[in-house]
Structure prediction request, 227 residues.
Amino acid sequence: MECDKKMTDIYYVEDDEAIALTVKEFLEKRGFYVSVYPTIAEAKRALLERCPALALVDWNLPDGDGKLLCRWIRSNRKELPVIFLTVRGDSRDIVAGFENGADDYVVKPFELDVLLSRIHALQKRCGNVSEQYLSCGNITLDRKRTTVICSGEELDLTHSEYRLLLYLLENKGRTVTREKLLEALWDSNGNFVNDNTLTVTMKRLREKLRRPACLKTVRSIGYRMED
Prediction:
């Protein structure tokens, strides 16, 4: 289910259902949409599919500790703001949290209004990064850096290949006709890309992406990207 576009998307990685529900209900009454993930594995899958505006991360999780997830985020979603929410209030833990990439650190128990103020402060400082990253399968496009990562490796795409992939990712889940792609991929001088050029560009893009299963050809119509 898609959330209201006016709401800010937050991922909360927390295995304590009571705490997760309390935070979720509080924040959703204040204009946020909160998705809860009880494990690191589930959080990673969600982050690869879509980047939220902010992540709240517990330290002690069933399949590892939060600082490992934070480190993974810094490698895969560099701009995503992360706040640790944890009972671990020792100064060494706090230092470790920041050293592993956290933007803020809140010790449990905490006042919900304090958490809200920390979230607002990060939003002002970092903006909303949720639309910076577009992903499908093992492919991630970073709009800000105009880079594409496939299976952890940065690809060297031409301008036309990048624009073609960007357009398909922006329309993920929808079939895009060849006609629409030809209209969208005008060159910088406003000249049409011809049908043969589109075919060649798509072929080269597929090869560089290692023929991903998520990039599908819809025979006689066009293409579609879907997880």
